[in-house]
UniProtKB/TrEMBL annotation:
Membrane is among the record's keywords: yes
Alphabetic keyword roster: Membrane, Transmembrane, Transmembrane helix
Protein name: Uncharacterized protein
Membrane-spanning segments: 41-62, 83-105, 117-143, 155-174
Length: 178
């Protein structure tokens, strides 16, 4: 939660300060407020609404801040192609619907079992290698590590996906049009 709040503050501070100053101020205040106000109803409510956070949202927020501070990191952090973002915007809602029982196939169940998770992580890592997107491999492995350590949800999909990724991908696509 500290990273997410820090990222929101970074976005605000970046309007009036250099990116490096905005990132430092945002993260310090984000973590400080999250720790200092962890029993506050606003922080608790935000955590309840965003749960399960997993690794995807914090890593995307840190990636955004890192690229704002140091654009030279782009080759190391990768970039998604427009078609990949469009596929995510279209397919993730279908995955969510299937996971809620709209169809007989429930792909969400695969996230509870080690062999399918290992195969999905391997597949994502191979795809990341082919697309030269090391960030995607980092995301897949970090989600698996969090899942193996039982930090949070017992389903791997909760660590690597989040419903807020859809609007983020949509806004990124729209931003590329302008």
């Amino acid at each position: 939660m500290g990273v997410l709040l820090g990222w929101v503050l970074f976005c605000g501070f970046a309007l009036v300060a250099r990116p490096d100053q905005a990132a430092i101020a945002g993260l310090i205040l984000g973590f400080g407020l999250t720790l200092g106000l962890r029993r506050n109803i606003a922080i608790s409510g935000a955590m309840a609404v965003l749960e399960p956070i997993g690794v995807v949202l914090p890593l995307l927020a840190l990636r955004h801040m890192a690229l704002a501070v140091c654009p030279d990191l782009a080759p190391w952090l990768g970039q998604w192609q427009a078609w990949e973002l469009a596929a995510l915007v279209l397919l993730y809602p279908v995955f969510l619907a299937a996971s809620m029982g709209v169809w007989r196939a429930e792909p969400y169940r695969l996230g509870y079992h080690p062999v399918p998770v290992a195969l999905m992580v391997l597949g994502l890592c191979l795809y990341a290698l082919a697309m030269t997107n090391p960030f995607l491999a980092l995301l897949a492995v970090a989600a698996q590590a969090q899942w193996v350590l039982r930090a949070g949800s017992s389903n791997w999909f909760d660590h690597i996906l989040h419903v807020l990724v859809v609007p983020a991908a949509l806004f990124t696509l729209l931003g590329r049009l302008w």
